[in-house]
Amino acid sequence: MDKIIVKGGHALKGTIPISGAKNATLPALAATLLTGERIHLSNIPHLKDVTTMLELLGQHGSAITVDERLGVEIDNSGVNNFRAPYDLVRTMRASILVMGPLVARHGMAEISLPGGCAIGSRPVNLHIDGLRAMGAEITLDEGYIRARADRLHGAHIILNPVTVTGTENLLMAATLAKGRTILENAAREPEVTDLAIFLNKMGARIQGLGSSILVIDGVDELHGTEHRIIPDRIETATFMVAAAVTGGDILLTDTDPEALETPIQIMREAGMAVELPEPGRIRVHVPDALRPVDLETCPYPGFPTDLQAQMLVLNSLARGTSRITETVFENRFMHVSELQRLGADIRVHGNIAEVHGVDHLLGAPVMATDLRASASLVLAGLAARGATTISRVYHIDRGYERIEEKLQALGADIQRTTS
Ligand code: EPZ
């Protein structure tokens, strides 16, 4: 089991390139199942979750060529297996994204129910109800979702609560359904919009991009195309916080500040100098002391839940009291007890974390629990005095490409040990 050892106290300096977005790559890979023609995707991040999705596509019969420099070429003309097995789905819930495309193009799918995870029960009822509204016959047995449809038809679907992958699954299914589908209260995350742009390049007819009402007029088939995955906004913001908590000064490249409007506003309130020197680049440094900021996570364009853990670290080192409210997931404070081991003064009351800033954190052994929580432990380790050893780092590798290499390049003392 790999561990990461961070010795804190080094101000991060230098330039860091941002990778393609994990949460745009996964739906885009699933969307390739909607056509039998070749698709080329570039700016693909090298992440465990992406490898898992490619494995899943391979099991369906996809022919995949990975080009280290450019990305992946996918040919789904030979897809002949419509089952997403438990042993893959349990390692990555986003596997459910193949359900909409498989039912839409092949009329069937057998998808293992993803089950819950550390941050919540993570139901998929909206995915299922939406496909049923579009005419799919769906049964749940032996832990599998079994879906059948001769041809899906359009429907008017209201999504409540807002669901990112639920919106993506139904959006993909609707592209090949007969007639018009309206997705109301659709997720507006940049990754959803990037998927819609990609689908329209494949010949889909989607309107309302970026809004909460997506209107899709189904077509008979989609064609091949190429697409470049958007930068990872969560990776970007995670490294911005790393600069802030170490008193560093970094330049992030190959990124997109427009997808981070709310986080950048909050970070500036926290005392971070966030400069946009040129398109695709962000410079971050902290001229004075950090200030505590209150925030509430909510669907885009609100503050992302995937940045909640990182902001807890920032607030832990700011002078004063702050509150962070988690409204998206019911159990997303697992990292608090680990941060407390590092000396953070955080008290959780229901879905509110109350933070009292401390002068410094002290390194200690900690354990990662989920992807973004584990990133917050790295941030805390970078800021803490002494060494922090993080176990169960496989959580980190799911969503951050070569995190220790990127941080080493900024002067961090961070090593991975394989025991
Ligand atoms: C996506 O997960 C992201 N994953 C998550 O990122 C992210 O935290 C989340 O959206 C919220 O932004 C991917 O895009 C692969 P949801 P998703 O469906 O789609 C409830 C990361 O770290 N809900 O938007 O699974 C659900 O319980 C990951 O990269 C239902 O009730 O999240 C939650 O409370 C973690 N029924 C809320 O909606 C459903 O059918 C939002 O979940 C679906 C969801």
Nutshell version of this structure?
By secondary structure, the protein is of the alpha/beta class. It has helices at residues 22-31, 48-60, 86-89, 99-106, 125-133, 164-174, 190-201, 233-245, 261-269, 308-316, 334-341, 371-383, 394-399, 403-408, and strands at 2-7, 13-17, 39-42, 63-67, 71-75, 83-84, 108-112, 137-141, 144-148, 156-158, 180-184, 205-207, 213-217, 225-228, 249-253, 273-275, 282-285, 295-296, 321-325, 345-349, 352-356, 365-367, 387-391, 413-418.
Task: Tell me what you see in this structure.
With 419 residues, the protein is of the alpha/beta class. It has 14 helices and 24 strands. The chain has helices at 22-31, 48-60, 86-89, 99-106, 125-133, 164-174, 190-201, 233-245, 261-269, 308-316, 334-341, 371-383, 394-399, 403-408, and strands spanning 2-7, 13-17, 39-42, 63-67, 71-75, 83-84, 108-112, 137-141, 144-148, 156-158, 180-184, 205-207, 213-217, 225-228, 249-253, 273-275, 282-285, 295-296, 321-325, 345-349, 352-356, 365-367, 387-391, 413-418. The chain has a 4-stranded mixed beta sheet. Helix 1 packs parallel to helix 7 and helix 11 runs parallel beside helix 12. The protein starts with a strand and ends with a strand. The mean pLDDT is 96. The structure holds ligand EPZ. Ligand EPZ binds next to helix 1, helix 5, helix 6 and helix 12.
Query: What percent of residues adopt helix (DSSP H or I)?
Result: 25-40%
Strand content: 25-35%
Distance between the termini: 6 Å
Give the distinct bound molecules.
ligand EPZ
Number of strands: 24
Rg: 21 Å
Based on Cα principal axes, name the global outline.
globular
Which spans of ≥5 residues are poorly predicted at pLDDT below 50? none
Mean pLDDT: 96
Summed up, the helix count is 14
Structural class: alpha/beta
Strand arrangement, major sheet: 22-23-1-24
Q: Strand count, sense and closure of the main sheet?
A: 4 strands, mixed
